[in-house]
Amino acid sequence: MENRSTIEGAPILESKQLKKLKQKRNRKNSNLKTIKKNWDLYLLIFPVIIYFIVFKYYPMYGAQIAFKDFIAVEGITGSPWVGFEHFKRFFNSFYFGRLIENTLVIGLYELAVGFPIPIILALMINEVKNKRFKRIVQTVTYAPHFLSIVVVVALLFMFLSPQTGILNNIIVALGGEPVSFMTEPAWFKTIYVLSGVWQTMGWSSIIYLAALGGIDPQLQEAAKIDGASKLQVIWHINLPAIKSTIIIMLILQCGSILGVGFEKVFLMQNSLNMEASDVIATHVYRTGIIGSQYSYSTAIGLFESVINFIVLIIVNYMARKINKVSLW
Amino acid sequence: MFKQLNTGDKLFTVFNYALLTLVICLMLYPLIYVLSASFSNPEKMLQGELWLFPTDFTLESYSLAFQNRDIWIGYRNTIFYTFLGTAINLIMSIMIAYPLSRSDFYGRGPITAFIMVTMFFSGGMIPTYLLVRDLGMVDTIWAMVIPGAVSVYNVIIMRTFFQNIPEEIREAASIDGSTNLNFLIRIVLPLSVPIIAVMALFYGVGHWNAYFDGLIYLRDSDRYPLQLFLREMLIQDDMSAMTTSGTEGVAKHLLRIEGLKYAVVVIASLPMLIIYPFLQKYFIKGVMIGSLKG
């Protein structure tokens, strides 16, 4: 038996290998052929690839200065290594606890309040049968998305001003004491999150509305014939149907839990509310761009991205385990 | 079909419409208030007499705003950055999205992964700043339009749209001897007007409302975009350059500044608020396409 297999097996193996090799060569040839045929597409994409290498990948390479003492004349490569020194300095700094707390609390607050509201809004808009009203609700709720952050923060200052703001006018008219909302640390996070909800709830609901539009209407009809109430249809049919969209959006938002955006916090920040408003991104700006401590601030930024990425991986893993839905 | 709605469903419908109406009011009230305030006598407004419609109608705040040099410079710069930036965004996005949409484009998988990575990883604020500085872009218009030239999210939306153009059209064209570039310009782009409009809106709104790049890359205020001037006027309360306080009293001066703020907000926001309703049905489609393959 053994003999036969070696004698007869060898040529079979050889021809198999040959076939594979030939296939590989053919594929290579046809690949070359398509590359040749589409040479102009490569020409088209080439500058954009260069853009990504220079403006996206080179800064990743540059992030190594977090482990170095960056000296401008020596450049990124020439500056001396210092290991984790900048990270240690950050962990031991006076600001560390407050930065982590503020960043995390704002992130979680946003998640808890800002995440469910667009879903509820989409479910509600989906129940509106009057086309005209539906269009009005959509158009109006999208409007704040098109305002700039500068304008939204300016509106907050106008409406919440202790002397002239309309909200304090009402409080005073009702016999209360005016509150200086924008300088009071205790109010900072609530104002930040609620104004964010105001600005983005409509825009964020579009994606869920789109998913709801894809549900087979026969499902809903069948449930109604079986005597389901509207709330039951929403709960047992509409919500499960958009579950995977919800989970994907949830993973994405969890992945930026420490990535509280710089732009709005920075504008709302002032010396009086600093203890509640200082987050990682604004600290990086102050020490890096303003204070020119490039290595130290890069280390802080890198710390943030690493935590974000770990959270993203964990949440994605959990979602895949529990719901079989994941980003990758 | 004629089955009567039960009381629970009726209640639900009433409640739903009522709540959505409340949402509309909460969304619109601040916007209407600002619009009314910009047309009102600031004195009346500060006394709390303004609730919804203008009191003591006047155009004084606007005439004051248009006399201001910063507003004009900011407006001019922002219009320039928005048009130049959006043009660069669109051209670059098409240049990468089209090849990636072609099933016969060898290397599309790795290249897609190559750009997707940048959605989750970035060098961070400081290394990017150092790069832009070393390239000599600080305090030039290029810092405003080049570092954010391509959004991966928008590229994916575009690619998905291009993929839906039937392959047969291209095969027919290639038999007729049309080159890829020719085909892209003569056939694909005219078929893609809706998605290009949506992308122009997404990118354009971004440029119009951006202040961050200006904040870190620009020093000379002659190049400031409108949003940076707005920040100075509205948030840092630096109105010193805004009004020429002659012989009039300080109180009067402060009043005029207060009115001016509202006019400035309207002037800065109106263009975008006027444009978007016309593109609404397109951008809903754009977000939908993005959600499918995002």
Element layout with pairings:
The complex is a heterodimer of chains A (328) and B (294).
Chain A: H1 2-37, H2 39-62, H3 75-78, H4 85-92, H5 96-114, H6 116-127, H7 131-142, H8 149-160, H9 166-173, H10 185-213, H11 217-225, H12 230-241, H13 243-254, H14 262-268, H15 274-277, H16 280-290, H17 294-323
Helix pairs in contact in A: 4-17, 5-10, 6-10, 7-10, 11-12, 13-17, 16-17
Chain B: H1 7-38, H2 42-46, H3 60-66, H4 69-101, H5 108-120, H6 125-134, H7 142-145, H8 152-163, H9 167-175, H10 180-191, H11 193-209, H12 212-217, H13 226-235, H14 250-293
Helix pairs in contact in B: 1-14, 3-14, 4-8, 4-11, 4-13, 8-11, 8-14, 11-14, 13-14
InterPro entries (chain B): MetI-like, MetI-like_sf
Membrane topology (chain B): Multi-pass membrane protein
Keywords (chain B): Cell membrane, Membrane, Transmembrane, Transmembrane helix, Transport
Question: Can you offer a commentary on this structure?
Answer:
Chain B: It holds the Pfam family BPD_transp_1. Chain B: Residues 75-279 form the ABC transmembrane type-1 domain. Chain B: Belongs to the binding-protein-dependent transport system permease family. The complex is a heterodimer of chains A (328) and B (294). By secondary structure, chain A is mainly α. Chain A has helices at 2-37, 39-62, 75-78, 85-92, 96-114, 116-127, 131-142, 149-160, 166-173, 185-213, 217-225, 230-241, 243-254, 262-268, 274-277, 280-290, 294-323. Chain B is mainly alpha-helical and 294 residues long. Chain B folds into 2 domains: 1-58; 61-294, MetI-like (MetI-like fold, Orthogonal Bundle), CATH 1.10.3720.10. The longest helix of chain B has 44 residues, at 250-293.
